[in-house]
Each structure stands twice: as C-alpha cells, then as structure tokens.
Amino acid sequence: MTETTNVLTIRTPEGAQFSLPLAGPVSRLLAFLVDLLVTLVLAILLALVSAMMAFGVGPDTAAMVFTILFFVLWTGYGIVLEWFWRGQTVGKKALGLRVVDQSGLNLRPSQIVIRNLVRFVDGLPLGLIGGLSCVFTRRCQRLGDLAANTVVIRLPDRGTPDLSVVRLMQDNSFRSHPHLEARLRQRVSPTMAAVALESLQRRGRMDDEARLQLFAAMADHFRMLVTFPDTTVESLSDEAYVRNVVETLYRNQA
After folding, report:
1. Whether residues 24 and 132 fall in one domain
2. End of a domain among 91, 123, 154?
3. Residue 124 in contact with residue 95, Cβ under 8 Å?
4. If you write DSSP's letter for every residue of 95-123 in order, what string do you get?
C-alpha cells in the first residue's frame, strides 16, 4: 500500500492496483458540521425530555440524566452509524465520504470505537487539534484515525456501475441460501466489492497466470467471510466463485 497526498493506492499480492481518493480537510469539515447539526438537534430533544423530567425527579437529577445521555449521544452517534452504515454517518453520506481501514479493508468494531472515543481529544479546543492533524498528516487523518489506523476516502462519482458482467447471470448457486447471501452482503466491504467487480470487468486484459492468481486470492478472501455448503460451491472455479459473489452483492442494481 502506498499513497500520495490525496490518493491511497492499494496493491494486491498479484500486482493489481486500485486507487482510492482521500478526503481532504474541507470535505471532512463539512461532513463534521452536518453531523454536528444532527447531534445538536438530537441534544435539544434530550434537553426537552430532561426539562420535563425535572418536574418529577428534580432539576439536579434531570441535569445528571441529561449529561449522561448527551455523552452517550455524542459518542454513540458515530459508533452506531459507522457500524451499521459501514463507515458512514449522515454527514459522510451527504458529502460522499466513507471511513475505511488504512489498507482499504472493512472497519473492525474496535477501530470504530477507538476513533470515536478519541473524538473528544480532537475536539479540543473547538476542533483545533483534529483540524490541525488533518492538515498536517499525509492522509488527512485526525488523531482518532491515527489511533485506529483508519482513513477517510471520497467515494468517486462513477454513476451507475457497469454490471454487464453479472446482469444476465441467472445460475448463481448462492441464491439457494439467502441467509448466507445476506451475511455475505454484511461482511464484504464496499471497497472489496468494487475491486471484485472491476477485476471481472478487466479480466480480458489480464494474462492467464495473473488472472488465475488474482481470482484465487479473491475467492479465498470471500470464502473466509462466509462458508457456503460444499454442494453449492464444489464445482465452481475461483473466478466463477467471485462472479457469484459480485452478482449477490450487486443483484438489486443489475
């Protein structure tokens, strides 16, 4: 893996290369402001609830409850959304950004927790520490990203992906196991899904040995994420296995 000032380049062991554009300080700031607005709206709702509680439990207890709930909101907002939305919050969705592992892989739960807990340090004073860190690090990382080994990438606006390699595919053996397909969709990172689709699109431009090695590595990666019954996959080549995976991931768009 290498990077320039605004691009993270991932090289597979087979020599394939994929580039991910890194988010800059301005886009990250705008995403933060959107998330801040959402958090403030939720905090106002909490304040109203606490104010109503004050009539029953007293102002001191209501203030304590509000403080605890606000801490949970401020910390949990990023953790919950980045987990369920696979590296995105409301602000990141609006700006077309996503948090990924610094190797381009899916986020681990520990990484999500760490980068959001360190947000308190990044926010001191008035976000200056986090802002300066983004400006002066090569990959525009705040302290939470450095601690969690994460980066924020810009999702390229490629329009509708070319799904011709899977659009007419009707014999995907994975379809007989919808619960395993759902698990596969959950566990495959958006980055890896795009890499697999692009590899199928480029297969005709690869030499035979490189193509075999690349799809073998990809198939092994997907097999580790979800195990399908032997009767479903025993007759599949590595490339056919990857094609099944891509069709599963992009079926609703094809």
Report:
1. yes
2. 154
3. no
4. HTEEEEETTS-PPPHHHHHHHHHTHHHHT
pTM over 0.85: no
What tokens appear for 205 in the block? 């431009």
Of 136, 148, 75, the C-alpha closest to 107 is: 148
Tell me the residue range of the domain where 17 lies. Answer: 2-154
Q: Would you give the DSSP letter of residue 140?
A: -
Q: Which has the closest alpha carbon to 20: 111, 98, 110?
A: 98
For 214-230, how does the pLDDT look when each residue is reduced to its tens digit (9 = 90+)? Answer: 889 889 989 998 999 99
Q: Is residue 40 part of a domain?
A: yes
State residue 34's pLDDT score: 94
Contact (CB, 8 A) for 100 and 189:
yes
- Cβ atoms within 10 Å, residue 175: 14
Q: For the segment 132-153, what is each residue's pLDDT rounded down to a tens digit?
A: 898 889 889 999 999 999 999 8
